[in-house]
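User: Run a structure prediction on this.
Assistant: Running it now.
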Amino acid sequence: MADENAELPVVTPEQFGTTPADSPTRTAGVLLAAGRSSRFGKSNKLLTTIDGTPIVNRAAETLRDSAVERVVVVLGHEATAVKDALFELAVETVKNDRYDEGQATSVATGVRALRSGPDVDAVVFALGDMPAVAPASVDTLLAAFDNEVGTALAAAYGGVRGNPVLFDQSHFDTLAAVEGDTGGRNLLFETNAAALIETGDPGVCADVDEPADIDELPSIDKT
């Protein structure tokens, strides 16, 4: 069993350098946006707006504005409404009919969607309830991967593990088979090629579980 109390190495961009924007690595982003958001109350937190823009839209924009080549949004609860809230962003959508069984089913749905298209070397999993992540943080994960820091990488702020998380294709079979509500989290502790990537972005540790969390979000920097 994975030990979530285990310490993962923290790697900073200064340790691995930068990668040109035209990196040959083929990457995709998967946004997990299928859950019921039961802790938020009666309304769907993903549809709650911040300055007029739904939370899920802001989370999808992060992936769209990063260097990933393809973005897939996994829908489930209130799928039609969540899809409409994306405001016709240039993203693909796929529905997870088993979303009630836990986040792992959405991870598996995302992996299957990727496998139905062009091959990718790695996937970045982001969460639909994290609207304050900067696209640059996703790009930092991609740069770490391109510079062979590891095959399972999680964004971090101040050395604290957050999201998004990147996995290379060697983990796709395992991701497609995980169960429960942890998604691919345990993989970070089951591989020797895992690391936390310092982003300097507080948004990678800021999710929305309850209405009060919106007021606690860091300034949303989409640069």
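The beta strands are 10-11, 27-33, 49-50, 53-54, 70-75, 92-95, 122-127, 152-157, 160-168, 194-198.
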